Please model this.
Amino acid sequence: MINEVLREIEDKMKKSVQALQKDLGGLRAGRAMPALLDKLVVEYYGVPSPVAQVASVTVPDARTLVIQPWDKGLLKPIEKAIQKSDLGLTPNSDGSVIRLHIPPLTTERRNELVKVAKKKAEETRVAVRNLRRDANELVRKFEKDGSASEDQAKKGQEDVQKLTDKYVKEVDEVLLAKEAEIMEV
Model:
């Protein structure tokens, strides 16, 4: 029973860290990365679709993204979606592809991005700690209803704490890597 709780909690903690990595992947770090467009959605035959599903996104050099829609009619909607987004980029269209030139980040903008990354990391830490709380409540419940002994419950809570420490450390490592990437000139 306690082992099931541990497996389930570890899985949820792992997913929290993966969600953080995906979120941080969308933060612009002064380099062209297709992940920048992950949250960009465009109407395609009445269905909101991610740009990556309606166009090919390539990186010809470190500062340029090229978006080539499979349907030429999507050029304008993709351009509008980029302009409305919080990417702060201006699309250049030549009638068949859209080029996004990624300007170098200013020091001020880099510091803002680091703050955003730290905020997302803290939200993930809080999520991991909430999972710890939930797991500990379940373990105490097992002890109370007699399906686990006091020693088993104590060991279960120690294991939950070890998992929490492990995943909080992973969050910190992901944040450090992203900070270094953002501050890299």
About this structure: The radius of gyration is 22 Å. The first strand starts at residue 41 and ends at 44. Helices lie at 2-25, 51-54, 75-84, 107-144, 150-183.
